[in-house]
Design a protein that fits this description.
mainly alpha; two-stranded antiparallel sheet; 16 helices; 5% strand
């Protein structure tokens, strides 16, 4: 302001001098009933000085407003920091914010050390994040994320949870999703694809493909528990249209379900022979009880392999 005043006074002096050099006449003005006669040069300097005073008043008002604004901003910053602290510490106290109200929407999402996204006019992207955390699938192309962005990975996981096979194939390169992706592919992909890519084979994989011509390959490549094999064998046994010999042959390399089916189809002699060869005590105990009309499946339900 000091420089502005000096420059203004020099400007006023120059205006007065130039006016006087062009004309030395005078002018009379009636101000509040008083006639005042001054040189035109003096009048011009007075008018310019009045403009200077108006500008000084204007700048003073602007500076005052700026001072008040900065003061409120500073107070808001302190209150916002305190509000964040209170939210993290689960305190209900909330200090008022005058200027930075938009940040209040974000603070409302803070709960302890977690940020729980919710719909926000200021942080509009939070609505998409809320959907992702709720397991929904979101179009993230507008954000231009990199392929390894955690939100892209979360969206991919949601697609897998919704049984999207293409998402499962994409996720095979992501270590954190690989197991879940393989699980989906093993359960839902075509048998040829499962066998060609050596996907892990689960009980559900086989149960979903009981009519497949490559069912035997699935069973032989699988590595399930005896209990799981029994459930698969039982499912095949319950299909009355299945030929017993064909069903039994599926388990030639899986001795427990193989013996189970021999017993179910009343091929007791062959079952006894295999039980003895493989020392399968469990079935040996059952055959000793069979004469007491105890059903095999009831006996199974009471034991674990």
């Amino acid at each position: 302001m000091k420089k502005y005043t000096i420059i203004s006074f020099i400007f006023i002096a120059i205006i007065g001098l130039l006016t006087y050099m062009n004309t030395d006449s005078s002018t009379t003005f009636n101000i509040l009933g008083v006639n005042i006669t001054l040189y035109n040069a003096v009048w011009s300097m007075i008018f310019v000085f009045m403009l200077y005073l108006i500008s000084v008043i204007y700048f003073a008002i602007i500076k005052y407003k700026s001072f008040i604004f900065e003061k409120n901003i500073h107070k808001d910053k302190i209150n916002i920091i305190k509000n964040i602290e209170n939210k993290i510490l689960f305190k209900d106290k909330k200090l008022p914010v005058k200027i930075l109200k938009e940040l209040e929407e974000f603070i409302d999402m803070v709960e302890g050390l977690e940020i729980k996204p919710k719909k926000s006019e200021t942080f509009k992207f939070m609505q998409d994040l809320e959907k992702l955390q709720n397991g929904e699938i979101v179009d993230l192309t507008k954000y231009k994320f990199s392929s390894n962005n955690p939100w892209v990975i979360k969206n991919l996981e949601n697609r897998i949870n919704n049984e999207d096979l293409s998402a499962a194939k994409e996720a095979l390169k992501i270590e954190s999703l690989k197991e879940k992706a393989l699980s989906l592919l093993a359960k839902k992909a075509e048998v040829n694809e499962i066998l060609a890519n050596n996907y892990p084979i689960y009980k559900e994989t086989i149960l979903n493909n009981l009519e497949s011509p490559r069912l035997k390959e699935l069973i032989e490549k699988s590595n399930l528990t005896s209990d799981e094999y029994i459930k698969i064998a039982k499912a095949l046994y319950l299909k009355e249209e299945n030929n017993p010999e064909n069903v039994i042959s599926l388990f030639e390399k899986k001795i427990v379900p193989y013996v189970y089916l021999l017993i179910k189809y009343e091929m007791i002699d062959k079952a006894r022979e295999l039980i003895k060869e493989n020392d399968i005590k469990f079935f040996e105990y059952y055959l000793d009880l069979k004469e007491k009309n105890i059903k095999l499946d009831d006996f199974l339900n009471a034991r674990y392999f």
